[in-house]
Amino acid sequence: MVNLMDSTGRTKLNSYSYDIFGNIVSQTENLPQPFKYSGEMMDDKVGLQYLRARWYDPSMGRFVGEDSYGGQVNNPLSLNRFTYVENNPLTHVDPTI
User: Fold this and answer.
1) Where are the domains of the chain?
2) Mean pLDDT confidence for 47-70
3) Which UniProt keywords apply (predicted)?
């Protein structure tokens, strides 16, 4: 999520800016709400985001639990079951979210 608008779509209530791994660089939040990077729920108390299948730690750029997908032998970056989008969130998306 980058902006949260009011019901008219004319007034910006919240604004967020992130680095490539989802760490908040800047934010203006007039209406507290849990949906942040990738439009998914962020637990600010523990600093983790739930990306529908696993908890993600943007400060590490890693998931805290293993991916059930085993990866592809011909693509070594896919074999690490904790990385977020093969360490390349600029050009890849996580298919589980």
Assistant:
1) 3-87
2) 93
3) Repeat
